[in-house]
Request: fold
Amino acid sequence: MTAVIVLCVTFIQERQQLLTKITNLTEERDQLKTKITNITQERQQLLTNNMSLTEKKDQTQTNNMNITEERDQLKSERNDLKKFVDGLKCHQSTLYFFSSEKKNWNESRRYCRERGTDLIIINNREEQDFVKNICGSDHFWIGLTDVEEEGRWKWVDGSTLTSGFWASGEPNDYLGKEDCANTRSSGWFDAQCDGSVKWICEKSILK
Reply:
């Protein structure tokens, strides 16, 4: 009988110890679950922060690129403006721009028109003398062409040339398709329009 009682007591004690271990393990499991949840949340937060940092870095790089492009654009515009101002001359009531670069006739006219001017129309001997004194030996496009009808020279405003200041033997269409006119100190020359020479823009101050 005593042995049975001892066995029962021992069983009860072992059962209690097992229950205690199970309780402890359950608590440890719950603590591990909580830690895992916290770690998962921290990891997600880190990923979110990393994404935000990456987006900010990309935005910063984009902003830097935009600033660089704007800076380069401003530099280009400043250089263009400086060239334009440096090439300006005034005669009577008209402003003239004498380029330092070279373009074909159409590109030269586009340059003038984009700035509210057009290729020069030379109206009289006084204006021709003013231009030739600046041109020297360099050729400059003027606003004169016979591209619509060979031999019928017209100014860029649509008016027909009645008298001009052609150099000796000009216009001669020597190379064929010499449909655009340029000028230098010795007078006007017809030339192929796709040739690259300097040009003159003109704008009346009174208009």
In short: The chain has a mean pLDDT of 87. The two ends are 132 Å apart (CA to CA). The beta strands are 88-91, 94-98, 118-119, 140-145, 154-155, 180-184, 187-191, 198-204. The helical segments are 2-86, 105-114, 125-135.
